[in-house]
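in:
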């Protein structure tokens, strides 16, 4: 009888049942106004007219175009896309690494006494606000600006990715370095080590795997971003995809989407290999 009452009473089966139901209800209540504000109506997809339009749109993707001359063009643009993402990441790293070192309080000598001095504190806060400004402006907006400055082509994409990703990398790098074990770094600083020495021999070895994994992930995101930037004239496969979509050539779009999937898979394999090397 006791077993039967336990099975019938959810609170007896799971002590946290009431709390989970409460927070799930709160989440639903908070989500509903957002769904109403965004006019999210998934049942529209299942209306007969919309199903017909969706079916025709997806049907245009088959079969993918595999003509040799088109594949050669896609290969060249895929290489250009990788180049945009890689050059953009290189620019982002050049900006993010010094900004990270300047904003990380773990490397502050004055903070070892318990409270950071005024000038180092102001410098770190200003650097963090600069990182906020860089990452708060989407790369698409930067691309629209640079397309007007440097003209159509990959250079605008490189600059757009470099600036936005510098802010993202600087923020996450700083959080990774400050959330890890800092005892070795503080010991080095207390014994007269310079900040760069404390970074290379204290912070970096303990966080190298996580930093590497996040960097490769951001490179993968940069490849995807280059597709979006291509729609505003920043070059790469995205620009060619935009041209094909304007010409209603779904087969060409399908081929380029498959190539994008291969590039993302390549980034995933590279990330796994680098994690093994760093470990």
């Amino acid at each position: 009888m006791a077993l039967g009452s336990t099975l019938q009473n959810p609170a007896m089966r799971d002590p946290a049942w009431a709390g989970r139901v409460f927070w799930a209800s709160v989440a639903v209540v908070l989500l509903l106004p957002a769904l109403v504000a965004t006019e999210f109506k998934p049942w529209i997809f299942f209306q007969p007219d919309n199903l017909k339009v969706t079916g025709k749109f997806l049907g245009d993707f088959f079969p993918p175009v595999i003509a040799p001359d088109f594949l050669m063009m896609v290969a060249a643009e895929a290489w250009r896309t990788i180049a945009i993402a890689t050059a953009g990441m290189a620019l982002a790293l050049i900006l993010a690494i010094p900004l990270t070192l300047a904003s990380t309080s773990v490397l502050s000598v004055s903070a070892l006494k318990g409270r950071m001095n005024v000038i180092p504190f102001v410098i770190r806060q200003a650097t963090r606000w600069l990182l906020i400004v860089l990452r708060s402006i989407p790369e698409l907006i930067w691309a629209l600006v640079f397309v007007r400055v440097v003209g159509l082509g990959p250079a605008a994409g490189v600059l757009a990715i470099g600036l936005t990703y510098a802010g993202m990398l600087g923020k996450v790098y700083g959080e990774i370095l400050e959330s890890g074990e800092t005892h070795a770094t503080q010991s080095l600083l207390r014994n007269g080590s310079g900040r760069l020495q404390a970074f290379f021999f204290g912070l970096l070895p303990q966080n190298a795997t996580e930093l590497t994994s996040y960097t490769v992930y951001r490179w993968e995101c940069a490849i995807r971003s280059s597709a979006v930037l291509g729609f505003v004239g920043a070059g790469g496969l995205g620009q060619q995809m935009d041209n094909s979509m304007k010409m209603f050539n779904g087969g060409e779009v399908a081929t380029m989407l498959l190539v994008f999937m291969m590039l993302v898979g390549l980034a995933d394999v590279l990330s796994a290999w680098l994690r093994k090397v760093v470990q």
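note: The chain has a mean pLDDT of 81.
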